[in-house]
């Protein structure tokens, strides 16, 4: 079946069609209440009811489409955005697809960027590497490869590589070690054209929905009972985003407190609250929120 034609007023969003960012991007948009594609051959998903169209594109191409203004927003990696040199800017950090972009070589061969003069550097991100070399005043040749650049050293195509490092497993398998400072810390980001001075209401709604999902995932809701004279100390442990809700309890001398707590701090905060005297400490998931 052919894909539906885009409708005119809809917000047009670029989605990664494959690779490291695809699944998490789809999950994020689904949690934000949008219909995402059900199978990987779908190129466009039109959601007429919500006035949104998702275009599934190669992550590397997304900044090009958005930078030229053909799509209003897109999800891609910061490294891909900067490498493309497309005139697009970050609107929101999405908290997944984290990686660093680093130089690596055989152990003991190179220890700093200054040592790269005259060397051959293999990479799939020539834009990022040329800029970094220029920033350091280094004259090296860049060998552009499509992927699997770690093997370029083994095969003698390059002396050094510059590539995405997540766990470091691929580098280790190739017998390479990172050197120098990270060129870039990357993560998935929502981007929009640089020259659009103002966002549109439709983009604002998308951003608020995505922020809602990110917050709901990053925080839990914590409830507990505490003696009234300890409530200030307790609230200092659970300050929440704005201010905790404190309600009277039927039992005199006690209050109930409700506050959002960073998910990663859940158990440490519960330990400290318990030590302070809080009881009936309950943690619940936040299904969705709009702050
Ligand atoms: N382990 C990882 N491997 C590759 N990319 C990762 C990893 N972790 C995070 N990322 C991020 O995902 C994006 C790259 O995605 P993807 O793998 O789809 O691109 P690509 O390698 O250029 O494409 P492909 O491998 O399909 O040619 C970058 O923003 C990168 O920083
Ligand atoms: O540090 P790690 O966890 O090992 O991950 C980083 C590796 O993963 C990516 O490769 P990808 O699978 O995208 O293949 P590619 O090189 O062909 O793009 C990246 O280019 C590195 O090679
Ligand atoms: Mg890849």
What's the short story on this structure?
The chain has about 290 residues and is α/β, with parallel strands linked by helices.
Question: What do these coordinates show?
Answer:
Belongs to the ATP phosphoribosyltransferase family. Long subfamily. GO terms for molecular function: ATP binding; ATP phosphoribosyltransferase activity; magnesium ion binding. Its main location: cytoplasm. This is ATP phosphoribosyltransferase. With 291 residues, the protein is α/β, with parallel strands linked by helices. The chain has three domains: 11-97 and 188-199, 3-Layer(aba) Sandwich (D-Maltodextrin-Binding Protein, domain 2), CATH 3.40.190; 99-186, D-Maltodextrin-Binding Protein, domain 2; 219-285, Alpha-Beta Plaits (2-Layer Sandwich), CATH 3.30.70. Helices cover 28% and strands 33% of the residues. It has helices at residues 22-31, 59-67, 78-84, 126-135, 151-154, 169-173, 201-218, 231-237, 266-276; strands at 11-16, 44-47, 52-57, 73-77, 88-93, 99-106, 120-123, 141-144, 160-165, 176-186, 188-193, 219-227, 245-248, 254-262, 279-285. It has a six-stranded mixed sheet with strand order 2-3-1-4-11-5, sandwiched between helices. The protein has a five-stranded mixed sheet with strand order 8-7-9-6-10. A four-stranded antiparallel sheet has the order 13-14-12-15. Helix 3 crosses helix 4 (126-135). It starts with 10 loop residues before the first strand and ends in a 6-residue tail after the last strand. The chain binds adenosine-5'-triphosphate, 1-O-pyrophosphono-5-O-phosphono-alpha-D-ribofuranose and magnesium ion.
């Amino acid at each position: 079946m052919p894909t539906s034609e885009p409708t005119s007023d809809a917000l047009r969003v670029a989605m990664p069609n494959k690779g490291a960012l695809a699944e998490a991007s789809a999950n994020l948009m689904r949690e934000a209440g949008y219909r995402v594609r059900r199978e990987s051959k779908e190129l466009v998903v039109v959601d007429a009811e919500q006035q949104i169209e998702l275009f599934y594109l190669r992550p590397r191409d997304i900044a090009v489409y958005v930078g030229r203004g053909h799509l209003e927003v897109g999800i891609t990696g910061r490294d891909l955005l900067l490498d493309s040199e497309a005139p697009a800017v970050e609107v929101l950090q999405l908290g997944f697809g984290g990686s660093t972009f680093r130089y690596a070589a055989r152990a003991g061969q190179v220890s700093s960027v200054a040592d790269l003069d005259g060397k051959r550097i293999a990479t799939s991100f020539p834009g990022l590497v040329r800029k970094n070399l220029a920033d350091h005043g280094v004259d090296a040749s860049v060998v552009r490869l499509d992927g699997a650049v770690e093997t370029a050293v083994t095969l003698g195509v390059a002396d050094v590589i510059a590539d995405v490092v997540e766990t470091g497993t691929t580098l280790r398998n190739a017998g390479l070690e990172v050197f120098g400072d990270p060129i870039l810390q990357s993560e998935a980001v929502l981007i929009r054209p640089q020259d659009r001075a103002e966002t549109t209401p439709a983009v604002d709604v998308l951003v608020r929905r995505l922020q809602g999902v990110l917050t709901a995932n990053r925080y839990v809701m914590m409830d507990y009972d505490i003696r009234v004279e300890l409530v200030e100390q307790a609230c200092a442990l659970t300050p929440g985003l704005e201010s905790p809700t404190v309600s009277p309890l039927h039992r005199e001398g006690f209050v109930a407190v409700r506050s959002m707590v960073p998910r990663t701090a859940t158990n440490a905060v519960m330990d400290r609250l318990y030590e302070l005297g809080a009881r009936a400490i309950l943690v619940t998931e936040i299904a969705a929120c709009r702050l």
